[in-house]
Design goal:
With 305 residues, the chain is mostly helical. It has 14 helices and no strands. The chain has one domain. The two termini are 45 Å apart.
């Protein structure tokens, strides 16, 4: 009987399908996040921003088509120049979209992903994670996928959709101007998503409560932006680079050759810009590096105990 019981108790279990370890972490975090009403409202805000910019893009294309001649070229006249200056250009609106949508995306990430690492730290969940055969790199990738996927869905995909909308209805003159800007614009949007995600994860790695991290993240972006704008307008030009949202608008304007912002500037929806896109890009890279460093140091400390 003893040998028989041991044989039954220790029989080999059937092999399980190999799964990519980070994906269950990201999937669970996303599912839990979208149970919150605040996350759904923030997501609705990002959709509204896309819708409003789509209307502006359609209006700009229709006005450009109405003021062009039979060959598709815009005539050089005082009336056409005034209309073009007021309405602005399509690629200027696309650049403005990233700057405006970044505000809405920051709010979405603050309510959906601020507690990714902070809540694990507060509830001491690291012991549960790393008691399993889970590598720290898999944990970090799983957590990083959440803000990356959300940012990709709110920044990159809508920008691609707005590009497609403009290219689909624009005269060939405007379409010829937009095609060379498609790849730089998408690369810029991907870089913006990475910067925002790395910054949020770094803040979550430093904090201990998701709600506190989310509030500090949004207020910090707003405070830095206000300080940078105020100092730059008072003559201290280098202080403008301290505003991350201002740096993003500067880089996107350079990549998309935005030119005159037109109606977006009249509505005061755009962030101000800095003098050098290269310096703004370097500042954004530095901010991302600090976020990644904070995550690495936090995981190293938790793994070592």
């Amino acid at each position: 009987m003893k040998d028989e019981v041991c044989a039954i108790g220790y029989r080999r279990l059937p092999p399980r399908d190999a799964r990519w370890a980070p994906w269950p972490i990201a999937r669970t975090a996303l599912a839990l996040a979208f149970r919150k009403r605040s996350v759904k409202m923030a997501a609705a805000l990002t959709v509204f921003v896309v819708f409003m910019h789509a209307i502006v893009v359609v209006g700009q294309v229709l006005v450009a088509e109405a003021t062009s001649n039979d060959s598709g070229e815009v005539p050089i006249s005082l009336g056409a120049a005034v209309v073009s200056q007021v309405i602005g250009k399509v690629h200027g609106t696309l650049s403005t979209f990233i700057g405006v949508q970044l505000h809405a995306t920051a709010l979405l990430l603050a309510v959906a992903a601020a507690g990714l690492i902070a809540e694990d730290r507060r509830t001491r969940a690291f012991e549960l994670y790393f008691s399993r055969p889970l590598r720290p790199i898999d944990y970090a990738i799983g957590k990083a996928l959440v803000p990356l996927l959300l940012s990709f869905a709110t920044l990159v995909l809508p920008l691609l959709g707005l590009f497609g909308l403009a290219l689909g209805i624009a005269p060939h003159v405007i379409a010829d101007e937009l095609w060379p800007l498609l790849l730089p614009g998408l690369l810029g949007a991907i870089a913006c998503a990475a910067v925002l995600s790395a910054t949020l994860l770094g803040a979550s790695a430093v904090g201990e409560r998701g709600r506190t991290v989310g509030v500090a993240f949004v207020l910090g972006l707003g405070a830095l932006g206000g300080f940078a704008n105020g100092m730059a307008e008072s003559g201290v030009r280098w202080a403008g680079y301290l505003g991350p949202l201002r740096d993003v608008q500067t880089v996107m304007d350079a990549l998309l050759q935005a030119g005159s912002p037109g109606i977006m500037a009249m509505l005061d929806l755009r962030e101000s810009t800095n003098d050098s896109a290269w310096i703004s890009a370097a500042v954004l890279a530095g901010i991302s590096a600090l976020g990644v460093l904070a995550v690495v140091l936090r995981l190293r400390k938790e793994v070592r105990g």
